[in-house]
Amino acid sequence: MNPQTFSVDGWVEHLIRPEIRQINAYHVQPAQNMIKLDAMENPYVWPESMQQAWLARISDLAFNRYPDPNVSMIRQPLSALLDLPADQQIVFGNGSDELIQILMMAMSGTNRGVMSVSPTFVMYDMIARFVGMPYHAVALNQDFTLNLAAFIEAMQTHQPALIFIAYPNNPTGNAFTRQQVEQIIESAPGLVVVDEAYNAFAEDSFIEDIARYSNLVVMRTFSKVGLAGFRLGYMVGHQSWMTEFDKIRLPYNINSATQQGVAFALEHYPVLVEQAVAIKQQRQMMVARLSSLDECEVYPSQANFITLRLKSQSADQVFTGLKQAGILIKNLSPNGGLLANCLRITVGSEEENQQFLAVFSQLLGESS
Ligand SMILES: *Cc1c(COP(=O)(O)O)cnc(C)c1O
Question: What is this structure's pTM?
Answer without folding.
Answer: 0.96
